[in-house]
Design a protein that fits this description.
single chain; globular; alpha/beta; 6 helices; 18% strand; 6 strands
Length: 130
Amino acid sequence: MSAWVSIDRDGRFSAVTDDHAAANALPVGDVASQDQLSELLDQPTVWLKVDGFADGRGFSVARQLRLQGFTGTVQVVGDLLPDQLPMAVESGVDVVLIRVEHAERCEEAQWRERSADKERFGYQRSVADR
């Protein structure tokens, strides 16, 4: 049995069949430069590991990847909260992976409800976007 549950942009749960990618995700604290992100642009999927719901660097790294032209799938691995799903999607995250134990506390219905609340959060805009 997998240790992870996958959550899509609409808050739907699905089982993770391969724990290998989640176990080998890039810790966002190890991202030190834009050049390091540029090396990931040709990958079909990038897995970013966050330390938990208080670690917003996953959103920042996902946003930077998208700004550099990344068109693949961004998956964030870590125990985010349902309230964070709209912000994750806004920043460019496609999938969130949370531990099975966390999924038992933060049920699918909560994630789906939050995914429908698209106007609640906005990711920080650059000065040029204002």
